[in-house]
Amino acid sequence: METNDSIYDTSKLSFEGDFDEQVQEIMKHVRLTKHEVENLQILLDDLHKTFNEVWPGCIVNGFGSIVTGLGIKTSDIDCYVQLPRWLYPPNASFVMKARNILRRRHWIFQKLFAITNAKVPIVKFYHAPTERCCDLNFSSSAGVRNSQLIAYLLDIDNRILYLSILIKYWSKVHKLTGLNLMPNYCLTMMVMFYLQQKNILPSIIHLQQNVDEHLVDNWNTAYREVNHVNNNEETLYQLLGGFFEYYNNFKYSKYIICPFIGKPVEREVFLQLDTVPAEFSLYKINVAKSSQCKPIRLDTVLCVQDPFEHNRNCAVAVHPKLAQHIMSHFNRATDIYNNNNEVNFLKTLLLRTDNTPAAKNKPKKPATFNGVKKQYKVNQNLRQNIKCITKNIFKGKNKGINR
């Protein structure tokens, strides 16, 4: 949950100076200060002390945007509590136990709420000393590994961090990401994927070569740090405008946004296991052998594949009406980029045009896998349905979108 949206009031920004000076003003306006980041250690220390009194040997790991460097003043913090071996395997009951343990220090941990029926059960709470909301889980370190990967990618080129925060801020100002909207993580993956097209970032499959597997929930989260050299000399301004142009023209009905491969992958190859590319061998194994591992959701307007967990579509929350809202802003941002000079770009880009979040539609049921585990039980008209949905959304609204 994110509160206090005062930083999204762009009237507080002067937009004086050239583009780079305006970027620095925005960074100062939205980013956490060094003191605020250091204060988050208080939260981690409070959790570590509280849980170790009951479960000696547990380790508290922070993850998410605050850890990667993409945190802004409204960002929450996510934590994974690694339990000692004698408490394995963790299950949903631990979030109830954790809620009760944290209640003992009600002056520190407030507004406690346990969510036990989620894929990853969590405890939500407000940490009074740091005035931060926190989500806490005991069952999956996937978020920790994803955050480590993002932090590494952000450090490859000094343009990436600024670009990512500018796009994140733009999405917040126009109410495209957040609770019941596009997840911040999904947008970050879209940024990383775009930079792979520019050869500024390597593919994740390249980073996983010649390195031992590090399995989390049966997915390989290993990667190696490489000396990735690119000859891209575009300015931050050009990369920002190019981001909007790229996704304004992306063929969503045909392709999956795939950071793992580092290039678009046709949706139809994931309709059946025997057509899934060889690079996704672990996907084939996991889906075929485990009833808990469902095929990737393809019945969405956007399909953004997780770089590690290949059956996860990070864009499942983006229902058709929200997708239309997002694409209209990609189209608007592209027009602004093509019709304004560098000095006026950010001010015009961040001018609010719609203060009403897109309404949430009832989610569609995912495709399922049959009992024989040989092929998907996919709607025969799935591909046609996706094309129709996309065509209806963009018809007459985004001339630049390929259909």
Give your account of this protein's structure.
- 39% of the residues lie in helices and 10% in strands.
- By secondary structure, the chain is an alpha+beta fold.
- The strands form 4 sheets. A 5-stranded mixed beta sheet has the order 1-2-5-4-3, with helices on both faces. It has a two-stranded antiparallel sheet with strand order 6-7. A two-stranded antiparallel sheet has the order 8-9.
- A hairpin with a 6-residue loop joins strand 10 and strand 11.
- It is globular.
- The end-to-end span amounts to 35 Å
H/E element order:
HHEHEHEEEHHHHEEHEEHHHEEH
- The pLDDT mean sits at 88
Structural class: alpha+beta
Strand content: 5-15%
Work out the helix count.
13
Give the tally of β-strands: 11
> How helical, in percent, are the residues?
25-40%
Give the strand order of the largest sheet, numbering strands 1, 2, ... along the chain. 1-2-5-4-3
